[in-house]
Amino acid sequence: MESVIVAIDGPSGTGKSSTSKAVAAELGLSYLDTGAQYRAITWWMISNGIDVSDAAAIATASGKPFIESGTDPAAPTITVDGVDAAGPIRTQEVTSKVSAVSAVPEVRARITELQRSIAAAAEKGIVVEGRDIGTTVLPDADLKIFLTASPEARAARRSGELKGKEASDLATTREALIKRDHADSNRKTSPLAKADDAVEVDTTDLTLAQVIECVVTLVEEKRTGGK
Ligand code: DC
Question: Which atom of ligand 1 is nearest to the CA of 133?
């Protein structure tokens, strides 16, 4: 079976992570959560006392943390300087600051290089999820998917995920999510965007199982297409 590279982009709450992990597991591919990498570098900046509103300070420090991603879809991992960062990168503080840190061009250059080397090393292929994978990181991906959903559906999913971890009501989640998407879509360097050749899948009225099936079918069609 030939190696295949799948790029899955879209805003938060569209089911990107759950879909990407399940598709990778089902097809025996590696999996990379690029949002986790931006969260990890943000966590490092906060932990090291760097003011996230100071782009120059972030740019200067951007080469310091050593970020490693484990790409098994059944148990993805993320470490910073050898320390497990899976828990700390999901806090409200990191979530509220990640857009500012990930907008800094030096951060994007560093993380993009890391992402490309991980994709190149994945022998059987990989599912890479993010915001700019199809447009910037892997423009030659075999298949590009852009997931969307209504703001209401996305906020409902996100507050479901957060339940029990942090107090959050639907309206607050919806507001924070729209604010972050706006920042991610309007930054100068590689904003959240659908690649011209991406397949758009609106997940608003689909179950997770239906989205997974849809993407698996698209990958299989690509693999067998024209052969
Ligand atoms: O997918 P996520 O919510 O964990 O992503 C966290 C943030 O990281 C998101 O708000 C924007 C940034 N990000 C990015 O700029 N580019 C990517 N490819 C992935 C995430």
Answer: 18
Which residues line ligand 1 at a C-beta cut-off of 6 Å?
12, 34-35, 38-39, 98-99, 102, 130-133, 180, 184
Q: How far is the CA of 157 from the centre of ligand 1 (A)?
A: 17
DSSP state of 135: I
4-223: CATH, from 3.90.550.10, 3.40.1440.60, 3.60.15.10, 3.40.50.300: 3.40.50.300
What is the DSSP-derived secondary structure letter of residue 86? Answer: T
> Would you state the pLDDT for residue 1?
61
pTM listed for this prediction: 0.94
Over the Cα atoms of the chain, what is R_g? 17
Digit-coded pLDDT (tens) for 178-202: 999 999 999 999 999 999 999 999 9
